[in-house]
Each structure stands twice: as structure tokens, then as C-alpha cells.
UniProtKB/TrEMBL annotation:
Keywords for the protein's UniProt record, in alphabetical order: Transferase
GO BP annotations, alphabetical order: citrulline biosynthetic process; L-arginine biosynthetic process via ornithine
Occurrences of domain Aspartate/ornithine carbamoyltransferase carbamoyl-P binding (ranges): 2-141
Classification via SUPFAM superfamilies: Aspartate/ornithine carbamoyltransferase (SSF53671)
UniProt-recorded Gene Ontology molecular function terms: amino acid binding; ornithine carbamoyltransferase activity
InterPro entries: Asp/Orn_carbamoyltranf_P-bd, Asp/Orn_carbamoylTrfase, Asp/Orn_carbamoylTrfase_sf, Asp_carbamoyltransf_Asp/Orn-bd, Orn/put_carbamltrans
Protein name (database record): Unannotated protein
Ranges where the Aspartate/ornithine carbamoyltransferase Asp/Orn-binding domain occurs: 149-299
Amino acid sequence: MKHLLNITDLDTDEIHQVLELAQRQPSSLGCPLRSSEGTPIGAALIFEKPSNRTRHSMEIAVVQLGGHPIYTRGEEVGLDTREPVEDVARIMSGYHGLIAARVFKHGIVERLARASSVPVINMLSDFSHPLQGLADALTMVQEFGSLGGKTVAYVGDYNNVARSLGEICVILGAHYRLACPEGYDASSDELQRISSLGSGSIEQSSRPQEIVTGAHAVHTDTWVSMGQEAEKAQRLEIFGAFSVTAQMMALTASHSIFMHCLPAYRGYEVTAEVIDGSASRVIQQGHNRLHASRGVIAHMLGVKR
């Protein structure tokens, strides 16, 4: 049985399978979340952290594959407060064909997976965001045909989004460049780990203009993620030079694209001119969250490309 907690839970061929399944019409995937009697199979969607794109994309993906999504807020479940994570996983495994969780701590999804008898999908944790990484890769594949040999820049905080993006870029043969302030960057061990994942490469600098020069795609994310509100003033000061501007995009390759996982804060990590301009692919990227989620679920439940 397969779980998706990190991008690295998929090998290169499996990533290609997910991306191919994501681009197929839902009707061609059958109904892997429908029983032999024709009744929908449940999918438990646990949200410790609220979300717009994640909830809508996952619920629709489950329905498109014949299932019945059940949305549950974190306080309703009470992971490790009302009852142990392991008890929740074992009980929900008896009700559902799939468990997906969006949590604060990565250890929660790891424990869900160890105790569950059905596939578990990480919809976001403090360590990784594999569904976003797959949607990002899908967007770039749609744009460039493949990621092999492309240069992908990420400007900002080395967070869960940056980690999953880097993993999938290196696995698929892209050159991944990070521009992060000191103290908010990837460790040397982390750079070495990601470098070992595939035929691509990874490099890091605290100079964003250097990193985006010649890039085919430029990514960024909010400087203040959910749960970091107390650090806002400090972060805004530290990240001030890391805003993606039109001047920065002018250094990139011709026909380059801009990407952001959203929500975006115009005037901070990106200017309105860039995110609302012709190079922006953020809406396509957001729509691809649905297709990537559907591809992941189909793959986890045994649908072949």
C-alpha cells in the first residue's frame, strides 16, 4: 500500500504516472472510489489548518473518482487531544478508502500512515507540501513540455513549498536555484540530500538577482505563513530585498513564467505588476491543484496510465 507524505515517496516513473493521470479526463479514470455495488467509498479529509484550494480541489477530485468526501475540522477530530492519532487512523480506515490530512506537524501524517490500513495523503505539513509540488510540476510541464534541463528559481523562505518543489525539480532533471536570506535558507545537509535525488541540480544564494538570471520559471511564497504571525514585522524587514519585481523578472530567460502557490500578498513577496502580468501562471497553477490531486488519488488506488 502506498502513502504520499513527501514527494520522495514517489520514484521518477511514479511522478510521470501521476502527471499523466492528472492530464486525463476524469471519465477515463473509472471510479476507483466506488464499490462493486456502485456505492461511493468515503474519503476522510482532516484539516487542522484551513484552506481554500486544498479543500475544494480534494473534495472535487474525490467526487470525480466516484467517492464521497467528508470534511472534518481539526478540533472535531482532536488529534492527540481528544484521542491518539493511531486510534483515529484505525477507525477511519474502517470507514473510508482514503485518508488525507492537512496538519501543523509532519509527525502527525507519519503516524496516521503507520496506523492506517488505507492510503494516506499529506495535504500539507510543516515539512512538505507534495500536492503543491506536483501541481507546480504539472504547470511547468504544460508550459515547457518537460522539466529536464530547465532552470527553476525560488525566491523567499525555504519552507515546505520550497522543499517539495526542489525535490520534484531535481528528480525530473531541472536545475533548482534558491534565493533565501541567511537564517531562512536550506542547510548544507538539505542541499546535499536534494541533490542526490535525481539528475537535476540545486544551488543556493542570498542574492536573488543572481539566482533568477536566466531562469525559465520563478516561484515565490508568502513571507509569513500560517502560525508565524508573531514574526511578521521581523520577517517583512528581513525579506524586503526578496520581492519578485518586474526588474527581477527582466533578468530571466525569454518567455519565462512566474508562479505562486497562493494566497499572495501583493507589494510584499511579489508586485502586482508581476503576479497580474502576462508571465503569471498562478491561476493555471491553482487549477492544477485539482488535476494533481485527482492524479495522485487515482495512482494511489491503482489506476494505470
